[in-house]
């Protein structure tokens, strides 16, 4: 049965529509609708723009009138890729390597990378070391590696093809992400070729790392006759509002959001309406009433051990996030709610449907359109800040550029600017947003990073992209179309004086790509993230006595078997943190708690604090926050002082996360502990390892957050 639910008429031309979903006959118990577009373009038909070039970070971007790479640019990219893939130890990537290749070009790229890495597989030192740790060494490794390489080149090895390369590619890891995929395929291939003395333990480890049926991890949820409501649409379409309206009437319900800022907003909104609602985040627990019907939480803290009428999971498209996707998968699979409302982008529809099929559950898709029009401008600001006006939000992607733009706008226009970026504390971001939204505050312009993409209600008339290139810690990259559309969609908020939103760029050279990205079809998500439970890791560890926790995670990563709908979220930061505390006398469960804490791994102040906290815990000593952080007595005015203050905030948040965990564990064990005064412990809640970890924007375990703020720029 096909159920059609429309909210407003479509606004895009048919050429920009996302692909039509498969026929309903393929989804016997799934109710769905066809996708409809949502962006209005206001530009002259047949407009022709001259070819242009743009320089960013030492890399020339050449595009045709539609913003597509020219053949010469693609050829240069292939040459860089060839050099890149010839170095087995290289982690570098180019700004043009993969993200701007589409369709057949992407497959050709993937074939090239696959053949290159396979040709070096047998001589790759890191792969030899991994195989040796599993007992596959010497002539045995050489023999199996040769057979594996030949079979893979013939295309007969499962999970070792061009499509697997595209699915496994991790921009931060570069070619090492492809090598990880090959190692996993190699271990699967090796099993029938192993001698009996190695095979026994190897097979046990393979079985323990088998994650192909995560739906079986939540037997209590499978007993509930759940109905999934999928609310999809662009920013400012009312999709989350509809789900929250249903939550407000529930006798038992939970909201699960991606940010504690959002969790706190829903907590305050419900209580302001007279509906008792508790707050549950990694850093904070507020119990309004033990009998409160509702809880507002971060998604990692989703309560999987209680029966609910309604559960709302926000930003469901983050189920495909390489680091945090496991938390959304855990919520989708494990929440024991009669009604499960998922809110997010249309890109998540096919993936959620496919997962629901494995659960035998019904899905009803509610499609929403923008409540206000969003107009693409014909022209840029002409490269001058003098054209910035009240209600504008200028978007750029480094702390240095944010404050430089703020200064230029204030000097040239006399308009005062508020600022928002990922490394600012959420509370500070909320205060800056409040100043910008208040017409009486004197702050008329907002200068921000992509941290405005979610979590803040903003009264923006026009989004102006100061740049469309973002530094990822290594290179400048074009902003991906989904992310660009999400930022642009913040303009024109329903119910404000700016109900018609606009979007443009600072310079002419960026405008073609902006138009191309805004009209690009939706890229459907294919896989959801997973992480094993602590219990699975403990059973895995029992087969590897004496193994370090970091190596344990690495071996699990190499051996893990997953269904085609899932991928294993990366352990990169967890392995770094595990090595820092390897010398401490901690149980495996305690190590799992510490390595999943929100500790940025590329900021020395934060890693030193992390080690200090763990050392206090291992030695049974109390740790006072006042002994760890000394705040300045005056407001910092220099960029380096501001950066130092941001790091100290992360240290405080890490302390609160660990202290909150200790209180929760003490309550579960029936022991007493001084609040925020002891060593941290945390209870396991489900699929994603340890609960409660929420890395805010700008906190992706390093100095380069989602807003691309380059810590070195100060």
Please, could you describe this protein's structure?
The protein is of the alpha/beta class. The protein has four domains: 14-40 and 215-367, P-loop containing nucleotide triphosphate hydrolases (Rossmann fold), CATH 3.40.50; 62-208, no CATH class; 374-519, Rossmann fold; 533-713, no CATH class. Helix content is 38%, strand content 14%. It has 23 helices and 22 strands. Strand 7 and strand 8 (285-286) form a beta hairpin. The chain starts with 29 loop residues before the first strand and ends in a 45-residue tail after the last helix.
List keywords for this structure.
Rossmann fold, 22 strands, seven-stranded parallel sheet, disordered C terminus, globular, alpha/beta, 714 residues
Indicate the topology.
Layout: E1 30-31, E2 40-41, E3 52-56, E4 59-63, H1 71-85, H2 103-119, H3 125-133, H4 138-153, H5 162-168, H6 175-190, H7 196-208, H8 219-222, E5 227-232, H9 239-248, E6 253-257, H10 260-272, E7 277-280, E8 285-286, E9 294-298, E10 307-313, H11 325-334, E11 336-344, H12 349-359, E12 362-367, E13 374-376, E14 392-395, H13 399-413, E15 416-420, H14 426-437, E16 443-448, E17 462-465, E18 469-471, E19 476-478, H15 481-488, E20 501-505, H16 511-519, E21 528-530, H17 534-542, H18 549-559, E22 566-568, H19 572-580, H20 588-595, H21 604-618, H22 625-628, H23 639-669
Parallel strand pairs: 1-12, 2-13, 5-11, 5-12, 6-9, 6-10, 7-9, 10-11, 13-20, 14-16, 14-17, 15-16, 17-20, 21-22
Antiparallel strand pairs: 3-4, 7-8, 18-19
Helix pairs in contact: 1-2, 2-5, 2-6, 15-16, 18-19, 19-20, 21-23
């Amino acid at each position: 049965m096909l159920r059609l639910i429309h909210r407003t008429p479509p606004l895009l031309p048919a050429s920009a529509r996302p692909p039509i979903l498969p026929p309903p006959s393929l989804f016997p118990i799934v109710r769905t609708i066809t996708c409809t577009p949502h962006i209005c373009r206001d530009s002259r038909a047949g407009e022709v723009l001259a070819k242009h070039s743009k320089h960013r970070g030492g890399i020339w971007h050449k595009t045709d009138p539609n913003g597509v790479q020219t053949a010469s640019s693609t050829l240069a990219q292939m040459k860089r890729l060839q050099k890149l893939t010839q170095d087995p130890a290289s982690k570098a990537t180019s700004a043009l390597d993969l993200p701007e290749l589409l369709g057949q070009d992407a497959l050709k790229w993937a074939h090239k990378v696959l053949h290159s890495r396979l040709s070096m597989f047998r001589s790759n030192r890191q792969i030899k070391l991994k195989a040796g740790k599993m007992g596959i060494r010497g002539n045995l490794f050489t023999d199996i590696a040769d057979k594996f390489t030949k079979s893979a080149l013939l295309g007969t090895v499962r999970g070792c093809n061009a499509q697997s390369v595209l699915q496994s590619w991790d921009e931060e890891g570069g070619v090492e992400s492809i090598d990880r995929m090959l190692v996993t395929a190699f271990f699967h291939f090796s099993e029938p070729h192993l001698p009996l003395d190695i095979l026994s333990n190897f097979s046990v480890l393979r079985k323990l790392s088998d994650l192909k049926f995560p739906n079986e991890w939540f037997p209590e949820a499978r007993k509930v006759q759940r109905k999934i409501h999928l609310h999809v649409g662009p920013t400012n379409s009312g999709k989350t509002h509809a789900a929250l309206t249903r939550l407000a009437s529930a006798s038992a319900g939970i909201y699960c959001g991606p940010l504690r800022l959002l969790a706190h907003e829903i907590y305050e909104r419900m209580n302001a309406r007279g509906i008792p609602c508790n707050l549950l985040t990694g850093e904070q627990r507020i119990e309004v009433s033990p009998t409160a019907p509702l809880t507002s939480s971060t998604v990692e803290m989703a309560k999987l051990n209680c029966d609910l009428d309604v559960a709302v999971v926000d930003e469901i498209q983050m189920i495909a996030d390489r680091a945090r996707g496991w938390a959304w998968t855990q919520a989708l699979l494990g929440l024991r709610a009669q009604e499960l409302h998922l809110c997010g982008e249309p890109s998540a529809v096919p993936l959620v449907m496919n997962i629901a099929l494995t659960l035998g559950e019904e899905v009803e898709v509610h499609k929403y359109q923008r409540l206000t029009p969003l107009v693409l401008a014909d022209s840029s600001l002409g490269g001058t800040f003098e054209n910035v006006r009240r209600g504008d939000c200028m978007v750029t992607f480094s702390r240095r550029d944010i404050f430089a733009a703020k200064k230029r706008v204030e000097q040239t226009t006399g308009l005062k600017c508020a600022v928002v970026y990922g490394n600012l504390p959420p509370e500070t971001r909320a205060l800056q947003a409040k100043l910008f939204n208040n017409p009486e505050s004197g702050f008329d312009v907002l200068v921000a990073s992509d941290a405005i993409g979610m979590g803040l209600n903003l009264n923006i008339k026009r989004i102006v992209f100061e740049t469309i290139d973002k530094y990822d810690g290594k290179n400048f990259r074009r902003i991906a179309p989904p992310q660009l559309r999400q930022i642009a969609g913040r303009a024109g908020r329903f119910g404000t004086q700016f109900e018609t939103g606009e979007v443009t760029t600072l310079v002419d050279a960026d405008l073609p790509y902006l138009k191309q990205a805004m009209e690009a079809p939706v890229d459907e998500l294919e896989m959801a993230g997973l992480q094993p439970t602590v219990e699975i890791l403990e059973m895995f560890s029992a087969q590897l006595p004496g193994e370090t926790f970091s190596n344990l995670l690495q071996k699990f990563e190499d051996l893990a078997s997953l269904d085609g709908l899932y991928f294993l979220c990366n352990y990169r930061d967890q392995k770094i943190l595990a090595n820092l505390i390897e010398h401490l006398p901690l149980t495996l469960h305690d190590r799992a708690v510490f390595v999943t804490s929100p500790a940025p791994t590329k900021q020395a102040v934060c890693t030193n604090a992390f080690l200090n906290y763990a050392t206090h815990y291992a030695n049974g000593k109390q740790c006072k926050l006042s002994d760890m952080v000394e705040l300045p007595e005056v407001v910092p005015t220099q960029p380096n002082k501001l950066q130092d203050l941001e790091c100290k905030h992360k240290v405080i948040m890490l302390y609160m996360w660990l202290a909150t965990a200790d209180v929760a564990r003490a309550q579960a064990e029936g022991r007493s502990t001084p609040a925020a005064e002891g060593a941290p412990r945390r209870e396991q809640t489900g699929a994603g390892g340890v609960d409660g970890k929420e890395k805010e924007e700008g906190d992706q375990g390093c100095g380069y957050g989602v807003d691309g703020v380059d810590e070195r720029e100060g």
